């Protein structure tokens, strides 16, 4: 099966940020995955919740990457504008580049639990 981009999957639904958050947030989004998909680089950092996995911090992505999740896996996320997430997460963008890590690895278990 050939990989598809998230926007080609038909299961990725972005919602533009409301005007009062537009300076910091590109969009929020929901997705339902099925099979293998290719995410393209966008230079932004996303914080997302994946059903059955937890909260992950992704990016900034400087190269495309593939992932596979079981059919129907749901995810929701928020995409921050460049420079915003590092300030909020207190971690440099270069340390997060091309990484997908659990939120607790960046903020500690107690902070991640408080967010949940």
Q: How does this model look, in words?
A:
This protein has 116 residues and is of the alpha+beta class. It has one domain (4-115). Helix content is 22%, strand content 45%. The chain has five helices and seven strands; from the N terminus they run βαβββββααβαα. It has helices at 6-9, 84-89, 93-96, 103-107, 109-115; strands at 4-5, 12-16, 25-39, 45-50, 54-58, 65-80, 100-102. Strands 1, 2, 3, 4, 5, 6 and 7 form a seven-stranded mixed sheet that branches. The longest helix has 7 residues, at 109-115. The protein is globular, with a radius of gyration of 14 Å. Residues 1-10 have low confidence and may be disordered.
Radius of gyration of CA atoms, rounded to a whole number: 14 Å
Query: What's the count of strands?
Result: 7
Sequence of secondary-structure elements: EHEEEEEHHEHH
Shape, per Cα inertia axes: globular
Class based on secondary structure composition and strand pairing: alpha+beta
Number of helices: 5
Low-pLDDT stretches are: 1-10
Q: In oligomeric terms, what are we looking at?
A: single chain
Largest sheet geometry? 7 strands, mixed
């Amino acid at each position: 099966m050939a990989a598809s981009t998230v926007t080609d999957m038909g299961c990725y639904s972005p919602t533009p940020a409301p005007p009062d958050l537009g300076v910091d947030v590109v969009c929020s989004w929901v997705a339902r995955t099925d099979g293998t998909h290719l995410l393209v680089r966008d230079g932004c950092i996303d914080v997302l919740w994946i059903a059955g996995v937890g909260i992950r911090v992704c990016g900034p992505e400087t190269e495309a990457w593939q992932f596979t999740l079981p059919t129907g896996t749901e995810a929701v996320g928020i995409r921050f504008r460049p420079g915003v997430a590092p300030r909020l997460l207190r971690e440099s963008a270069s340390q997060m580049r091309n990484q997908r890590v659990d939120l607790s690895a960046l903020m500690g278990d107690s902070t991640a639990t408080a967010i949940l």
